[in-house]
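$ fold --in a.seq
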Amino acid sequence: MASGNQFDRIFEEYVAEIESALPAVTEWFAQLKASRKYTAQGFKIDDVWPSLTGSHPVMIRIFREHFLRLAILIERLDREEEQEDEKEPSEDDWGTDDDDFEDGDEEEDYDEYGERPSEPHQVLIERLRAERPDLYAHFRQFMFIPIGLEDYLMVEREIENG
């Protein structure tokens, strides 16, 4: 199972990267709005860039990287839970309850309903909205979900080697 609080660590790194990127990203968006490039052609800036500052390639890269890291973590935890469920009961466990053996660290990875995140967006979007509404505002109408097995495998290799 997850040790430390891997979900918290990934979330904290995600927040730190967003905070680091924001000055350049907000400057980019301010220049984009000031240029009137789109309004002169009859478009609203919100129609062209619905996520506003979240549309910047750096913000997409940050989201994508952490989305894939979380997807890999969730997949690993799912596999571990499946393997644990498939283990044959031992006579040594007779008369014990599985809940008696839960590791205290595991509790940290679970939400108030007793469940750990099952989807990356629960950490990257929903938790950001709850804990950092100032940063969540930059992901208004953010419509990006990275897909592709190659991406997952590449990030998993980077994580294992890093």
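$ fold --in b.seq
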Amino acid sequence: MDKLGRAAEEVRITRKTLLELPDPQQPAPPAPKLPDHPAYQQIMAVFAAADAPLRARQVCEAMDTEIAPNNINNTRLKLKRLTERGILVETGLGLFTQPRP
């Protein structure tokens, strides 16, 4: 019976020790990769200087791109692509900004 009591105590101590261990740290996800196309570099430069969320039209204006529906739609698609990669966030319908740390 003494052996059984010691074994039970060892199991309790082991369980207590295991429960006190911190959760394993998850590795940080890799930083999102910005596409190589120069337009994405320009877009990110616009957001680096911006102090508020921007719409695609405002991004076009900041990049001195002709304000035409085709250009605005192409810019919006690029903004959506950057959002999908986690580089930008869409704070409202059509409003984009850099994520806060």
